[in-house]
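Lab notebook page, bench 4
Experiment: in silico fold of construct C2
Operator: M.H.
Input chain length: 184 residues
Purpose: comparison with the prior construct
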Amino acid sequence: MRLDPVYAKFYNNVRDGGSMGTREEKLQELGITLPTAGSPAANYANFFIVGGLLFVSGKGPSGGPRGKLGIDYTTEEGYQFARSAAIEVLAVLKEAVGSLDAVKRAVKVQGFVNAGPEFSEHHIVINGYSDLINAVFSESGGHARSVLGAVSLRNQLPVVVDAIFELYPAAGGDFVNEDGHRFV
């Protein structure tokens, strides 16, 4: 059986006791250090793995900015907030499976933009998320996407995203995080 080149590097690196893979190296090239994954803001989990798909709960930008696009913030500021939310999603991915190289591909993102009634550039704001995911995952970063304007979001965050990723199966077809937890 021939392994996908990205997965082969991940598999060989982990087998040899390493933890840094190609996507973590890409983050370093981009000057990004992943934070510790933030805790959920209410009664839900940061992620669930079901049938080889990893579902990441809604994540907002770091620092807890509050306000609306088109009123308190510009489209460019919103783009940066969405990029920051992508970093939060990547932190959850790494917490969940131990390495970003265990992710086969990005599948879908939903972006919610807290905006004033006249704001119409929601799609440009969420490009901040999509552009970073595409940069980190290369050809595996392309994803389906929905973008919604919202009258308000939790804690008045300007942007919230949730996402779905496909994982590479570990030996035996299960999915394993760095703590050795198996998910089927």
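Observations: The chain has four helices and seven strands. Strands lie at 47-50, 53-59, 103-114, 144-150, 159-167, 175-176, 182-183.
Next step: discuss at group meeting.
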